[in-house]
Batch of 2 targets.
Target 1
Amino acid sequence: MTPRPSKVSDRSCDRENFRWYHGASCTARGVLSLLGAALTIVLQGCVNATVDEMTFMEPTEGIGDASVVIMGRRHAPDYETEFDFIECIGDHIRRGDASITVLHELEFINMMYPWFEPRTAPLRTDDIDKLLTQQRVADRFSEIKLEYMIWIDGSTVETNSSGSMTCGVGPGGAGCFGFGTWGNASDYEATIWDFTDEIEVGRISANTSGQSYMPAVVVPIPIIAPVQGTACDSLGDQLLKYLSAKL
Amino acid sequence: MISGPKRTLRALGILAGLLLLTACGAREVVVKGNFPKPLMDPLPITLGVVYSDAFAQHEIFDEAAGRAETDWLVKTGDAQVEFWTTLFGGMFEEVVRISDHDSLHARESEIDAVIIPYVADLQYTIPLHTNVKVYEIWMKYRFRLVPLDAVHDHENGDLTIDSTEQLAEWTLSAYGKTPTAFLQSDEEAVNLAAVVALRDAGANFATSFTRVPGVAAWMAGDNEAAENDTEAFESE
C-alpha cells in the first residue's frame, strides 16, 4: 500500500479541437484552422489550475464489471456542489474509459432514497456499516456492484466583478458600449471510498481561478475563462488515472 | 381598415398592457415532482392515514410587501399527499388511507394505528427577499399517531380525531434549497426547492420515526406509556 502523492500546477489558455469542414480545400482548411485556433485563444480567458493528489490501493487491474458513483456534498448551509459539475466529471471518466461503469448521480440518489439525501448521506466510511444493516439497502448495493463511492465537495464562486456596459436600441439599429470583467474561482476536493473494504483510499483536490472579460464596441465580445470546466477536466483526469487499467 | 404600421403599434400596445397586467398578478406555483419509494425494510405495521382537508389542500399566500414585489401563491397540497402516500407505502407493511365512513370501517380489525400529518408552518425566500442567489423553503410538520378508536366519523362524512386519545405526537422540520440557474424561472426554482424540502421531510421522518419516545413505547407494546407520553418530541 504505497501512497501516490503528486502535485500538478498548470497555467494554460484552454485549447479546443477545431472541427474540419468537409469539402473545403486544403488551403481553405489551413486558413480556417488557423482562424479557429486564433479565435479560440483570443476568446478564452486564462485559467490557473492546481491539482493535489494522495491516493492509495490503486486498482491496477481496473475495476472490472463493478461500478462507481460520483456524488456531490450538499449538507453545508452556504454552498452546494453543483449537479452539472458531478455530471461533467462522470462524462469525463466515461469518455476516457468506456469500460468503467459510472452511475448517474440522481438515479443513484433516487434508487437509494432516503439514505443519500443531504441530511442522511454518510459523512465517514464508518457510516457505511450502519447503512448496510438495512437488508434492502445491502441487497441494492450488491445488485449494482458498487466498488467505489467518490464524494466531491466544493463549488465555483464569482470572486470579483467590475466595469459597466450600456446597450441601446434605435431606429438605425442596436449596440452596446463598455467593458466588464469578472473573476471566478473553483475549489473542489474528491474523496474516494473503497466501498467493499469500507475505507478511504484517496483524496484529490483541484483549485482553479480565472478572469473573464467582456469588451463591447457595438457588439459585446465575451472572453470567458473556463474555470469550472478546467476544474472538471483536472479532477476527471486524476480520477480516470486512478480507476482505469488503461492509463 | 387599419394600415400596417398602425396595426403593429396596436399590437405592441396590447402586448405592453398584457406585460403590465402580468407583472401585477400573483405568481402561482403548484408543487409537482417525482418522489421515489423509500428503500427500507418495512415496519410490520398496518397504518391508517388521515389527510385532513387543510393538509390535502395546503397552500400559502404571501401578499406583496411593496410595489417592487408580487403576491405569491404556493400550493403544496397535492404534492404533500402524493409524497407522504409514497413514503408511508415504502416504510410500513401496509397502508390504508382513511377518508370516509367506508374506508374507516372496511379494515378496522387490521389497522394498528392511525397517523395524521399536519403542516404547522411553511416559509419560503427568493433572491428578491434576501439578495442571496438561493431559493429556500422551510416546512414544519406535526404528526399525531392515534389508535383507530380515536377516529370518529359523522353523518355528513366528516372525520374527527379525539384529542384525548393519542399514542404519540411530534414535530419535524424540513428544508429545501436550490441555487439560481440560467433560464430558470422563479416559479420553477420555488417548485424545486419545495420538492427538495419534501424529500428532506421524508428522510427526517423515515430515520426518526422509531426514535420518537411515544412511538418507541407503542411499538414495544407499552401502550400505557405511549398514551401518557405528553411531552412533544421534536426531530430537527
Target 2
Amino acid sequence: MTFDFALAWTSLPALLNGAWMTVLITVSVMAVGAVLGFGMCLVRMSRNRALAAIGAAYVAVFRGAPSIVLLYLVYAGLPQLSIVRDTPLWLLFASPLFCAILGLGLNHSAYVVEILRGGLSAVPAGPVEAALALGLPPRIVFVKVRLPMAVRYGLKAYQNEVLIFLKSTVAVGAVTIADLTGAANEIFAMTYDPFTPLVTAGAMYWLLTNGLRLGFEALDRRLNRHLAATVPDRRPATVRRSRPGLSLFRQPLVRRLPAKPAARETH
Amino acid sequence: MGLLAYGADGYGDELLDGALVTVQLAVFSYLLAAILGTLMAVLTLKPHGLRWMIGRVYASVATGIPSLLVIFLLYYGGTEIVHALLAPFGVEERPAIPPMAAAVAALTFVYTPYLADLLRSALQNVPKGQLEAAEVLSVPRRQIWLKVLLPQALRIAYPGFVNIWVVLLKDTALVSLAGLTDLIAAAKVASGSTREPFLFYGVVVVFFILFSAATIRLANRQSRRLDRGVRASEA
Amino acid sequence: MGPALPIPTPTPAPQGAGTRLRTRAAIELRDLRKRYGEQEVLRGVTLTVERGEKIVLCGPSGSGKSTLIRCINGLERHDGGTIAVNGVTLEADGRGVQDVRREVGMVFQHFNLFPHMTVLENCTFAPRQALGLSAAAAAERAMHHLARVRIADQAGKFPAQLSGGQQQRVAIARALCMDPRIMLFDEPTSALDPEMVAEVLQVMEELAAQGMTMLCVTHEMGFARHVADRCVFLDGGEIVEQAGAERFFVAPESDRLKRFLRQMLH
C-alpha cells in the first residue's frame, strides 16, 4: 500500500484528460439543467391542473430514479424508438456524450425544478405586491423582482445539488465515457496499482468540488451583499445561510428529499 | 410481461435477487454510518482541538470525492489496506475482500460524516438548560447522553437523516459499475439479452421511487412518535 | 415643513381598458363588495374622495379597511359594486387595473422595498420599466423625491441597512417617483418602533400640505386631526360613521365608534 509518485507523475496527463471530461460534462449538465429546470418549473407551477400534474410526474420520475438508470434508458432505450432510430436524431443518440449529458441533465433538472419552486414560493408577497402597485406589468415583476429573490433563496440548495451531481458524474462510465474515474481505472488495469491513480483522481475530485464550492460562496456573497450589514437576517429560516463565510473544511450538504416532506430539508 | 416472470423464462428472480442486494447494501451501510456518525458527532462536538480538526479533514475528504471512487479503492486495494493495518500487530493476512464488503465499507466511509454533521448541529441546538437540569439532578453522565441529549438531538436531526437515507439509497446504484450484481446490474443483463430496456429499467425506476416513498412514509410515522410531547411551532 | 413643490398638473389618463367617466372625484366607490369564501369583508361601501382631499380610514382589525384600499388599486379583486379612480373604472375582472395603478401610489405597512436593490434602484426601477425613462432621467427624478423625504444621502444603501422609519420614507419616495395623483397608505406607521413614527408622519403631512389626494388607513389620531379633511370609521365591512376630524373624535355619534375610540385611548 504505497503511493508511487513517479506513476502519479506519468499518469497525470491521462488523469487530467479524464478530469477535463468530467468538467465538460458537469458544465453541460448545469446548462441543460438550468434551461430544462426553468421551463419545467413553470410547467410544474402552472395553474392548469393537467400541466402541473405533468410537471409533478416529471419531477417524481427524474428525481426519484438513480442517474445511472436514466443514462441506460437514454443510451440503450431511446434508440429503440423509431422516432429516434429512423430520423437524424439517431446521430445525436449514437453519441455516448450526448446521452450522458441528457441523462444526467434530466436528473439534475428535476432537482432544479424543486429548488426554484421552493425559492419562488419563499418570496414574500410584499415586494411583489409593491411592484404591481407601482403599475409594473406582471412579466417584469416576475423577471425583475420575484425571480431574482427566488434565485437568492435557492442558491444554497442549488450549490448542494451541483456538488452532489458533480460527484454522480462517475455514472457516465456506464455508457463508455472515460471520465476522471474511468481514466484512473484504466491506469489501475495497466499497472495493478490501485492506490496511486485512485488517490490522485480523488485529489482532483476534491479540488473540483471545493473549487466549485468556493465559487458558489463567492457568488452567494455577491448576490446577498444587500444582507451584509449588521441588520438581522429576516429571510425565512429555511433559506438563511447557516454559517456564512469562507472555510475550506466546510462540507457540502445534501440534496433535498424527494416526494413529500418538501418543507423538511437539511439547512 | 412474461419477461418479468419467475424462473428460467423470465427475469423476475434475477431482478428480485438484485433488489435484495441493493436493499441490503443500503440498509447495512446506513446503519453503520448512523452508529459511526453518532460516535463521530459526540467526539467532535467542541469546535476546536485535535479531534475536531481530524474530523473536519475526514469530512472534507469523504464529502469531496465520489463514493464510486472509494468503492473502487476498497475493492481493488482493500486486501492491501487490511494487510497494512494488521501488519504492525504481526498478523500476515491478505484476506480477499468481497465486493459487497467493499461497497458497504465505502458507503459507510462516505456517509458517516454527513450524519455526524447533522447530529452534531442538532446536539448544539438542544437547549443548554437540558444538560444543566440533568446535571443538577445528578444523573450519571452516560445517562444524560443516552436518555436526555441524544433523543432530543435525534428528533431535531430526523428530517436530515431521512434525507440522507434517500440519497444513499440512490447512490447504491453505482455499485454495479464495480461488479456487484445489484438491481441495476440485473436489469442491464436482462435488457441486454431481451432488447427490452424500457421494461427493465422502468421496473428499476419504479422500484426506487416506490421504495424511497415507502421508507419516507415509515419514517414520517416514526417521526410523529418522536414528536410526542413537543408543541408544534408556528411553521 | 419641507420645500413646497409643485403638484404635478393632472394630465388625461391614458386610454386603456378602463372607461373614462365624467366626474371630478379622485376615487369613487359605489356599493363595493368583497368576500373571502364565506366571509363577507366589505358589504357595500360607498365613498367618494374629492381631488386634493385627505381621508383617514380607521376601524378595528378585521373591519375591512386594508381590503378596501387594496381593492382600489386592484391588489384584491372586488366582487361587486364599482370602483372609479380619476374617472377610470376598474372592472371586477381586472380590466383597467394598469391604468388605475398609474394614477395611484401605495405605501405598505411593511414597506415592501425590493431587498436586492439599492435605495436608488428601488426608486428608479418602476419609472424605467413602466414609464420607459432613461437611467439618467429616472435617477434624477428619484434623487428629487429622495431629497423630498430627506433620505437622499442613503441612496446607495440597501434597504436592510436602513432603519424602519428610513425604509418607509424610501417607500414613499418610490411611490412618488411614478407621479401618482392619489396616494394610498396602509397603516404606514404600524410596523415602526415608536421613535420612528414621527419622521414618517412628518413626511406624510408635508405631502398633504402640497395638495396630494390621500387615503390613509391609520390609527395615528394626531395625524388625523392635523391633516384629515374627513375621518371614516369602518366596522364589519361597512362605513358606520364619517365626519370632519374634530367632530369625529370629540363628538362621535354611533356607539361602535365611541367604543372604538375608548379602546384606542387605552
